[in-house]
Hints:
CATH superfamily of the largest domain: GAF domain
Number of strands: 16
Radius of gyration: 39 Å
CATH topology of the largest domain: Beta-Lactamase
Helix content: 40-55%
Number of domains: 3
Strand order of the largest sheet: 2-1-4-3-6-5
Order of helices and strands: HHHEEEEEEHHHEEHEHEEEHHHHEHHEEE
Shape: elongated
Largest sheet: 6 strands, antiparallel
CATH class of the largest domain: Alpha Beta
Amino acid sequence: MPHAPQFPEPADPHDAAGAEGSAAELAERTAQSLRHLAGGPLSRLPQLLEAMVAIGSDLDVHRVLHRIAETAASLTGARYAAVEVLDEDGDGLRDLITHGSPPEGRPAAPFALRVPIKVRGELFGSVFLAGKRDGAVVDPTAGSGVESEAGSVAASGAGSGRFGEVDLQLVRVLATEAGIAMGNARMHAAARQRRRWIDGAASVTTALLAGPETGSTKEHALTVVAEKGRELAEAATGAVLLPQSNGAMEVVAISTVLSEAVRTETYGGTIPAASPVLHQIHAGLAVFSDDFAGDPRSISPLSRHYGPTMLLPLRSGGRVLGALALCRASGGPRFTHLERTLGTQFASQAALALVLADRHRDRERLAVYEDRDRIARDLHDLVIQRLFATGMLLESAQRTAVLPEVKEGVGHAVDELDATIQEIRTAIIALQQGPPEAPAGPRTRILREAGAATAALGHRPSVQFVGPVDARVGAECARALVAAVGRALTEMARAAAAVRVVVDATVTLGDGRAGVRLTVTGEGADGDPIAPVVWEQALQP
């Protein structure tokens, strides 16, 4: 089924005088045509007037165009009628609505009739008729080869069933009414389209600011923008690109109806920094292409799957955050001027929503960190100090104890308190970790490894740090240390019921160099110790 035709942009609403003049001219031309028809056969006037009323009261574009074709054929007795709709540039057909059987070859005999349809003075298309039936009503002027500014009757041979002046005037009135109806339908369609885009932009803002349940990550927010933009633009693919350190832009979120292979190829792809397309995007200018695959401005392999494309800057506060690409498949309909305008506005609103969502997440994250800092301070100031004081009292009691059994028992209690204090300090460090995307030190990364192993072990392993691990362990050594922790915890998960991890950055290796030592110990389900895993490496001076 042919797609619904698109229309030229509505005229400037401030040009009221021009609109009134245009309407007056249409009314005058229609009156003249009807006066002319009054001198010819009148049997077709009721049908014409009925069609005019029906066409003028219908806002469904395709139904109106089909009715025009059917009515034109019925009024003139034409075997074939077509309504040709031009594209926005006027250099090709946007749509073709036909009625009846098309003639063989170019319709040239006995007669052909073509009348233009204009909307607010702009050429919208034309009504074309060919092959008048024998026995149809014959106009008194038939065979005269009439031509006029509003249409033409062309003769190329003798024969019966010729279009005449009355046929021309009938179709001319019909075309005038069609122009008025198309103008109304155009404004109605444009209003509906604007409403869709406005509602879509509002839904994106609502989704991004809805809270942690639906919009907690930046990746989710970008995917929402890509998906909603694709739906509104009726595109095959919507993608969000963000700038990289080398000046290129990378696809970091995508929504597509194309194959999984195209999705995989597009996601993570880049537009190189040297592309002329990016120069425009960085300047805050939208890029439009009717054939992205063949556009010389695009030097990216991403373009080879796509035809009409809008590459829209995500701009907020004078800063370009990235770009929104809305791409139709090769051979798809071009984006209209209205779609380009609405798409650009949507991208600006989406960029603002992304900025607001980032700030919203930052505020939530800050509130969590403030709460963690408070808990950490309470643990340190209250719990650890009390445990430390209790440990000192026990040590004093141990020194005054007489019985060896009592001394041994108190000493064991003191050791347990020391271990508990160390574990609480580890918990405090975990509470004070930065966000997952922030650069993490060795302590944080080791704690993450321990947390990741919780499911396999059935419990969270105890982790203890000795010495300034973050300060003394360099980047290369830290990578090796974290990898060793992961391997050791994987081995322990097979047999250990309790696991303890100790990272000591104050040891001296056998060759006298300063080093870091990892010791992972565990106990089996029966309480028997498992052979410990020991890893050590020299520290860089």
